[in-house]
Task: structure prediction
Amino acid sequence: MQTQSNRPTLESVHNLPVGDVIALPADQLALLQSDAREAVDSAKRMQDWIEAAVALRYEQRAIGARAEARKDTGTVRFQDGTVEIAVELPKRVEWDQRRLATLADQIRTGGEDPSEYLEVSFKVSERAYTAWPERIRRAFEPARTVRTGRPVYRLTIMSETERRDSPHASTPFLFGEIG
Result:
């Protein structure tokens, strides 16, 4: 014979008024809190698993689209049937602090104000760097490292009209089509 527990479940508590939840014994609230954390952790693991599968499926297409667009970072888009895939690859720029300090000294020695090029923390704005004259950028290049972040894939189911009007509608599926 199966015994029923008086312990509330996440599903049952979801529909309770907050006053009823507040009135639950502390040990039941603690168990519900633990259950909720486990559910979040489980959902996160599932999301990571699905994101990894999406990345594996579309990685080569994203690389091809990025090469075709001549973009090392940023967002590229392509289609797989009724789904548009937008792949964002963030740019992460790091600066060698020791080299930047040396450059600041050289700029100061040359009679210019290093604060026109450098922030006090020896960080360089990427926007400013790309706007600098070539001779200044060349001097800073050895202190600059560009890394990419983790790609983000966004899949959107498109309507027939959106598919027809999409600039990516004729993009062929190049690598390992699944479908």
Observations:
- The first strand starts at residue 74 and ends at 80.
